[in-house]
Specification:
The complex is a heterodimer of chains A (about 140) and B (about 375). Chain A has about 140 residues and is mainly β. Helices cover about 5% and strands about 35% of the residues of chain A. Chain A has one domain. A five-stranded antiparallel β-sheet of chain A has the order 6-5-4-7-8. A three-stranded antiparallel β-sheet of chain A has the order 2-1-3. The longest helix of chain A is centred in the N-terminal third of the chain and has 8 residues. Chain B folds into two domains: about 130 residues, Peroxisomal Thiolase, Chain A, domain 1 (3-Layer(aba) Sandwich), CATH 3.40.47; about 210 residues, 3-Layer(aba) Sandwich (Peroxisomal Thiolase, Chain A, domain 1), CATH 3.40.47. In chain B, strand 2, helix 2 and strand 3 form a beta-alpha-beta unit. Chain B starts with 6 loop residues before the first strand and ends with a strand. The chains are: A mainly beta (about 140), B alpha/beta (about 375).
Chain lengths: ~140, ~375
């Protein structure tokens, strides 16, 4: 499978490794500040709420809503040529952070701001699992 | 005591612009600088300060490299990279340096070679972090598109209203002999132009260009003895929402809100006193959004505000009279600074706004990440 997968893959480093290890187990985990309770995404070194560096990895609900989206007609990377037009969405997680991702089981024309979604896991290679989202009943 | 009216823009430099292949960025910086000196009636030895916006596609040009090519001994200099917001921010720093006595004549310069760059600028400007790229998220346009979609959702603004901006600015460009795109367009042309990243049609997106711009800032006192009428810097401000739009509390208020508030405060005027606008128009929708944030209309009213000729030549608030980034040329924030100064000098021929005395110029970089404004008067 991995030799056929041509799309870009995330760079895994010491900061984001727990995130990608969790998605591989089909769990969505974010950093939560031990001092002020703020959740952050993407992973980083400090809490943007209070600058504390005491961040714990915690499992989150995987629930959220569509905050905004765009549909790519322009192909910027050849591996996406077969997908265009394809949608990229920004999900606002119930815990607060927003993340760029894709929807599954939803055509671009059916996307609406505020649509409730839940996380699903796409094992794109043997090493990398991308969290994506699908519509759910509100 | 503020910097109100204490400094002025006294020289404008243009170059060949549009699609100008085969030239390095440095040649545009030099040509623009030389033309700004001639326009001001200054000698090269008069320049004792330089502020440069580095060129993303040819970052070898620096303030001190340019000074070396021009044989200058500087008392003040720096590179300033606020991306699209650099023009107005650099004018502010130039005015501060002149007013503080650190230099007398500050040359400010920028060049784009993105139209003819190799590799093409599209690659340079993709800017996608690898995690986003895994989902097919590439390019600056898509990040702006996400803001535009949210703006449409929150306030009901429409693609046809975005189109009104594109059509108006193209009409202005048709009166500008140096504009890259001069063929008039209609709303239907806008609606029928191909999708790039929804909700953007091709005609919602700015041009990609080659070209350089320079200008010179000096004290109001020195400005009065130069070749061209001074254009005074009445007010200035900045406002910087941070880089990643998705981390902002709101996507639909731009840095123009803070930037404009500070600038109007310094100038001691309100939007009602402004005759013309030069709004950074990387994409059509950022024009109504910034007009709202500057206080020309209420929040969410920008879409209706830009319809029916209000921002066109002959309307109550002529905006981007050169055609802007959408239709004149993409040399970032320097397109607006130069057009505003020309209008206030009365140099705009067919597209001159009669009696134009006060202009606001905005500049914005990243994905509405940085913002700087200046208010100018004749």
């Amino acid at each position: 499978m991995s030799e056929e997968y041509r799309k870009p893959l995330p760079n895994i480093d010491d900061t984001n490794r727990p995130y990608w290890e969790a998605t591989r187990r089909h769990e969505l985990m974010l950093q939560k500040c031990r001092d002020c309770g703020h959740y952050r995404y993407p992973p980083g070194e400090t809490c943007p709420g209070c600058l504390s560096n005491r961040l714990d990895w915690v499992k989150v609900s995987g629930l959220g809503t569509v905050y905004t989206w765009t549909v790519f007609h322009q192909v910027y990377h050849p591996a996406f040529a077969g997908d265009a037009p394809y949608a990229v969405v920004a999900i606002e997680l119930d815990e607060g952070p927003r993340m760029v991702t894709n929807l599954v089981d939803c055509k671009p024309d059916d996307i609406q701001v505020g649509m409730p979604v839940e996380v699903v896991f796409d094992d794109v290679t043997g090493e990398i699992t991308l969290p994506k989202f699908r519509p759910r009943a509100s | 005591m503020t910097l109100r009216d204490r400094c002025a823009i006294v020289g404008l430099g243009y170059t060949a612009q549009g699609k100008v292949p085969g030239r390095k960025a440095m040649s545009f910086y030099l040509e623009a600088s030389n033309n700004a000196l001639s326009d001001a009636g200054l000698n090269i030895q008069d320049i004792d300060g330089i502020l440069v916006q580095p060129c993303l596609t040819d970052p070898r040009v620096t303030a001190f490299g340019l000074a070396e090519e021009m044989g200058l001994n500087l008392r003040f200099g720096a590179d300033q990279q606020l991306h699209g917001a650099s023009s107005c921010a650099i004018i502010q720093h130039a005015a501060m340096a002149v007013d503080a006595g650190l230099c007398n004549y500050c040359l400010c310069a920028f060049a784009e070679v993105s139209r003819s760059a190799s590799p093409p600028t599209g690659i340079v400007y993709q800017m996608a972090g690898s995690t986003n790229a895994a989902y097919g998220m590439f390019g600056v346009a898509a990040s702006y598109a996400m803001i535009a979609r949210r703006y449409m959702h929150e306030y009901g603004v429409t693609s046809r209203q975005f189109g009104a901006v594109a059509v108006t600015f193209r009409k202005h460009a048709s009166l500008n002999p140096i504009a890259q795109m001069r063929e008039p367009i209609t709303i239907e042309d806008h609606q029928n132009s191909r999708w790039v990243v929804e909700p953007f049609h091709l005609l919602d997106c700015c041009l990609i260009s080659d070209g350089g711009r320079a200008l010179i800032v000096t004290s109001a006192e020195r400005a009065r003895n130069l070749k061209r009428p001074p254009v005074y810097i009445m007010g200035m401000g900045q406002g910087h929402p941070f880089n990643d739009p998705l981390k902002r509390q709101t996507l639909t208020v731009s840095g123009a809100a803070e930037s404009g508030k500070t600038a109007f405060g310094m100038a001691g005027i309100t939007p009602a006193n402004v005759d013309i606008c030069a709004i950074y128009d990387a994409f059509s929708f950022v024009v109504p959004m910034q007009l709202e944030d500057l206080g020309f209309c209420g929040k969410g009213e920008g879409g209706a505000f830009v319809e029916e000729g209000r921002i066109a030549l002959g309307g109550e608030l002529p905006t981007n009279t050169s055609g802007g980034l959408l239709s004149e040329v993409y040399i970032q924030g320097w397109v607006g600074t130069h057009e505003a100064v020309r209008q206030l000098r009365g140099d705009c021929a067919e597209r001159q706004v009669p009696g134009a005395e006060i202009a606001i110029v905005t500049s914005s970089g990243g994905v509405l990440s940085t913002h700087a404004s200046v208010i100018l008067r004749k």
